[in-house]
C-alpha cells in the first residue's frame, strides 16, 4: 500500500513537470508570435515610408524632365536669341536627383533595414500567422525593384522612364496590399 502511494506521488510529480513544460512551450510560442507581429508592423511602416520617398523622387524627376522638354520646345518655336537657354532635360533630371538625394538616401538605408527585419521575420515566423513571411519577402523584393526603377534612368526617354516607374509601382502596390491597409 505504501509502495502504491509512493508510485502515485512520483507519477503526479511527472505530470506536474509535463504541465510546466507545456506552459513554457506555450509562453515561448506566444512570445514568438508577438515578436513576429511587432517586427511585421515595423516592416510595414518602413515600407510605407520608403514608398512615399520613392514616389516623391519619381514625381520630382518626371516633373523636372517634362518642364525642361516643354521649355526646349517653346524655345525652338519662338526662336528668340535674346532669351537665356532653357535647362537641358539631362541637366534638369540631374538637378532633380540632387534635390531628392537625401530622400533617396533615407530610402536606401530603410531598404537595408528591411533586409534585417525580413531576417527577423523569417526567424519568428509561425504556422498560423495572419500575414505570411512570403508576403513580406515579396514586398521587399518589389520595393527594391521600385527603388531601382526610379534611380535607373540611363538611355531612357521620358515615356520609357514613366512606364518603367509605373510598372514597378504597380507591382509594389500589389505586393504591399497583401500586408493589409496602410
Description:
The chain has 182 residues and is an all-alpha fold. It has 5 helices and no strands. The protein has helices at residues 2-78, 89-99, 101-124, 133-151, 158-177. Helix 3 (101-124) packs antiparallel against helix 4 (133-151). The longest helix is centred in the N-terminal third of the chain and has 77 residues, at 2-78.
The helicity comes to over 70%
Rg from alpha-carbon coordinates: 28 Å
Largest beta-sheet characterization: none
User: Strand pairing plus helix content: what structural class?
Assistant: mainly alpha
Give a quick precis of the structure.
It contains 5 helices and no strands. It has 182 residues and is mainly α.
What keywords describe this structure?
mainly alpha, 182 residues, 5 helices
Note the topology.
Blueprint: H1 2-78, H2 89-99, H3 101-124, H4 133-151, H5 158-177
Helix pairs in contact: 1-2, 1-3, 1-4, 1-5, 3-4, 4-5
